[in-house]
Amino acid sequence: MNCFYISGYGRSGSTVLDTLLTNFDGLEGIGEASNLFDCIHNNEYCSCGEPILECEYWKPFFKEYNGKINKLAIETRKYEGIRGLFKKSNNSIYDQFWTNYFKSNSNVDIVDSSKISRKTFMRPIMFKRLGVNVTIVHLYKNSDLLLQSLLKGSNKDLNKGVKVAGIPHIFLLRSFVGAFFANLFTCLIGRFFSNDYKFIEYEEIVVDCDTFLVNHFGLNSSLVDLENLNCGHGVSGNRVRKKSKSISLRKSNGNISLTLPIFYKYLFRVLVIFKPSKPIIE
Predict the structure, then answer these.
(1) Which long-range contacts (CB under 8 A, 24 or more apart) does 38-45 make?
(2) Are 189 and 137 in contact (CB under 8 A)?
(3) Which of 32, 205, 208, 224 has the fewest CB atoms within 10 Å, i.e. is most exposed?
(4) How far apart are CA 50 and CA 54, in angstroms?
(5) Percentage helix, strand, coil for the chain under 3-state DSSP, each rounded to 5
(6) Is 3 helix (H, G, I), strand (E, B) or coil?
(7) CA dist., res. 178 & res. 12, Å (int)
């Protein structure tokens, strides 16, 4: 049982990477699956376009847990959050569900883009305890590109179509703290608690996807249509994947066209300390 766990901070391109990988044979992207049971409770949509309770991919896994979804949601928060440091599952319903899921998908490698946060801190460690070979994929986005994305506002507001008026100072400061600790804990978990650790820059994907796929996953980009990527059966994820059943990988030259606030520009550049062999001052 193998899992590529996409980690790091949100807004770093995890949905793009998850969607890209799920288009290759032998890889199954399941999105931000830490939200699976909450999505079921709210009957949200799978990225295939169907309500998750009617999705042919997910439906078989729910049958024996009919009436237990709320308990699974509670167990998920109990074991995957920071509180999970002090708790060890012992044949819990959480263990049962995910063990059955991975065994049912033993012919493919699972791509989970739940990332690392206070709610998912223990998720990759819990998977390893269940006997899953976990590879941490540390996704890092250039600080200026990350800030450019954050200046648009929170995902919650963007999903509602709310436009930000002015600079969202509180949100940006909170995001910096979140990004710092998400990257820090990803480094620690990736290096000490996973089977393998990959550090990937988002710019590698959008500037030269062909080379990126070969170098990190041994995959040939000619096997998929980068202009029409199937979104698969991902859970949650950002608004890009929710708009349609497919997305296009937009190539970029990595240039920043937006004038960024000078204070935040240099604040977010502190995150370069998490980039291997990259000094803060060049």
Answers:
(1) 38/73, 39/235, 39/236, 40/69, 41/69, 41/70, 41/73, 44/236, 45/242
(2) no
(3) 208
(4) 6
(5) 50, 15, 40
(6) strand
(7) 12
The length of the chain, given as a count of residues:
282
CA 20, CA 4: separation in Å to the nearest integer?
Answer: 13
- pLDDT, tens digit (0-9, with 9 covering 90-100), for 153-210: 777 766 666 677 778 899 999 999 999 999 999 999 999 999 999 999 999 999 999 9
Token pair 């179509």 in the structure block, residue: 161
Q: Please, what is the Cα angle at 218 between 213 and 223, to 5 degrees?
A: 65
DSSP secondary structure code for residue 12 in this structure: S
Q: What is the sign, positive or negative, of the torsion defined by CA atoms of 150, 156, 159, 165?
A: negative
CA separation for the pair 144, 141 (Å, rounded) = 8
**Cβ atoms of residues 152 and 30 within 8 Å:** no
Residue 125: name the closest of 212, 256, 239, 7 by CA: 7
How does DSSP assign 96-157, residue by residue? HHHHHHHHHTTTSEEEE----STTTTTHHHHHHHTT-EEEEEEEE--HHHHHHHHTT--HHH
pTM: 0.91
Pair of tokens at residue 140: 């890092």
Cβ-contact 19, 247 below 8 angstroms: yes
Query: Which token pair is 198?
Result: 């990959």
Q: Could you give the C-alpha distances from 165 to 97, 162, 264, 280, in angstroms and in order?
A: 44, 9, 17, 32
Residue 34 and residue 234: Cα distance in Å, rounded?
Answer: 11
Mean pLDDT, the chain, whole residue set: 87
Backbone angles phi, psi at 141, to 5 degrees: -110, 135
Which residue is it, tokens 């931000």?
32
